[in-house]
Amino acid sequence: MGITAMRLSRYSYLIREGFRSIFTHGFMSFASVTIIMACLIIMGSVSLLSVNIDALIKDLENENEIVAFVDEEIKDEAEAAAMQSSIEAVPNVASVTFVSRDDAMDRFMSQYDEDFGVGIDADVFRHRFVIQLADIALMSNTKADLEAVPGVAKVNAHLEYASFFVTVRNIVSVVSLVLIVILVFVSVFIMSNTIKLATFGRREEIAIMKMVGASNGFIRLPFVVEGLVLGILGGGLAFVAEWGVYSLISSRLVSGLAGSFISVVPFSSVAMPVFIVYMATGIMVGAFGGVNAIRNYLKV
Amino acid sequence: MVHMKNVRKVYESSNTLALDGIDLTIEDGEFVFLVGPSGSGKTTIMKLITGEIRPTSGEIIVNDFDMSKIKRRKLPKMRRTLGVIFQDYRLIENMNVYDNVAFAMRVVGAANKDIKKRVPYILELVGLEGREKRMPNELSGGEQQRVAIARALVNNPRMIVADEPTGNLDPVRSLELMLLFEKINEMGTTVMVVTHEKELVNAFSKRVITIDGGNLISDGMDGYYSYEIE
Predict the structure, then answer these.
(1) Assuming Cys at both sites, which of A57, A79, B13, B169 could form a disulfide with B173, CB separation 3.0 to 4.6 Å?
(2) Domain boundaries, chain A
(3) Same domain, residue pair B170 and B58
(4) Nearest to B163 by CA among B69, B77, B41
């Protein structure tokens, strides 16, 4: 048998040993997979919550429109409507809707009793443009730019709401980032300790391997294989569990009372990044955890 | 071959002097008993030979490896020239007899074909034929120690080092085991047995090295404790 065949038989033996070890140390394998799963689900849930809060704030931002009133001198509807292109050209303007004075009156009247508006003429209202911004943090500048457009008499913008939303968005971003970083550290600590505990019972086995002349690589490989398999298993199961729990909660939210004012980011739109992060974390924690856990026993 | 020259070992953590200038040579093909009371330094000598610890000063050569300077990555290669046997057998509990022995061959990268040929031969040599599928906990103490001997022998080491190998066995099994070591030695392997069992040592006319208080007290063919230990 050649050297290559010898190496192949050796590697296939070590890989088989890794798989075998998962079953012979069944309880510790179960504990490792469960811990990896639990940590990933907690981390993932916080991240997904943050994604949803961010989306919610963006929705609310979009509802925060600003209104540019056309100068009263411009009475002709067509002439007023023609200003749309100048308004669209203003930086940070995402969309512009022209509302004629007749439409404005209809909207106004629809909010009150039929009798309330009797006798009010459409001339009381001005032609106007309802504008949505790309970034409400720049609302103050955009307001000034719009006021400078010829034919615009006045711009109504809720600057205080805009700054409120910007503050909330920033706080949510920072808090979720800090939470995720803390959870990553806690998870890695817990996972590495679980794997350490799992290998503690096998230090005798490692000592025997060393005594018969096993190299560190020979001892390490089955642990790496075992860690990888457990990590992939933990990551995969965490993904499936996250999918199930997220879908359940979001369907309850949407069909329930909250559905009328909350929209939930569908899991399908975040599934791929969640899957990649879970699997990558599982693989890294499993493999590095396996190597790290036996490092001390290899020094003999 | 083991060559020790003025070897001292101080355990720094407890500031204990374990060996105080030992000079000792064991030639290839010899059968040696290393004897002495508890705490005399026997285990320290054994650990120095297997590379578990390093000397504080002095020179140790084991099978052509300089143990006071050996690099950590060279230790596996050195250990493959030794077969080590312990009082508590140290078998891998979840492997059967065959796998416990085959495992030592896999460690050195032996091919499956060679493993299948060599392991049954060694198991027969130590009298364990027909026990291949048994798990360690299904065997008697004597049988478990034979598995450990088979594992130590399977890679054809230059030297067998046994630390109190009969410590957990009754006198009859102990004698059988010593006869097995004698047989192994007659086949050309150097054997060093660390023990404190006087009757057993005196039943064989072999070289006896006596250690006490970290010093070499006697070295000769006169049997156990030719020097009276107080």
Answers:
(1) B169
(2) 11-60+164-299, 65-157
(3) yes
(4) B41
Positive or negative: CA dihedral A174, A176, A177, A178: positive
Lowest mean pLDDT of A53-67, A83-97, B144-158, B182-196, name the range.
A53-67
DSSP-assigned letter for residue B138: G
Same domain assignment for residues B150 and B165? no
- Enumerate the H helices of chain B as residue ranges: 42-50, 75-79, 97-107, 112-125, 141-153, 171-186, 198-202
Based on the domain organization, do B62 and B164 belong to the same domain? Answer: yes
B147 and B170 together in one domain? no
Q: Is the ipTM of this complex over 0.95?
A: no
CB spacing of A13 vs B106 below 8 angstroms: yes
- C-alpha distance from A300 to closest chain B C-alpha (Å): 6
> Is A24 in CB contact (< 8 Å) with chain B?
yes
Question: pTM for the whole thing?
Answer: 0.67
Distance of CA A103 to the CA centre of its chain: 40
Overall number of domains in chain B: 2
Shortest CA gap B208–chain A (Å): 25
Q: Which of B156, B172, B190 is the last residue of a domain?
A: B156
Question: Which residue of chain B comes nearest to A213, CA vs CA?
Answer: B76
Confidence (pLDDT) at B229: 47
CATH class of A65-157: alpha beta
Residue B65 pLDDT class (50, 70, 90 cuts): very high
Domain assignment of residue B46, yes or no:
yes
Contact between chains at B92 and A208 (C-beta distance less than 8 A) = yes
Residue linked to tokens 């066995």: B169
Residue B137 located in a structural domain: yes
Q: What is the pLDDT of residues A229-261, one digit of tens each?
A: 888 999 999 999 999 999 988 888 877 766 666
Of B134, B156, B178, which residue constitutes the final position of a domain?
A: B156
Short-list B104, B93, B46, CA closest to A214: B104
* B155/A213 touch (CB, cutoff 8 Å), yes or no: yes
CA A297 vs CA A209, A210, A219, B211: distances in Å: 11, 9, 10, 30
Domain housing B190:
1-81+158-224
The answer to the question of residue B86 being in a domain is no
Angstrom distance (rounded) from CA A119 to CA A103: 16
Which residue of chain B comes nearest to A205, CA vs CA?
Answer: B92
Dihedral sign of CA atoms B197, B14, B11, B23 in order: negative
Residues A282 and A238: beta-carbon distance below 8 Å:
yes
Euclidean distance between CA atoms B196 and B186, whole angstroms: 23
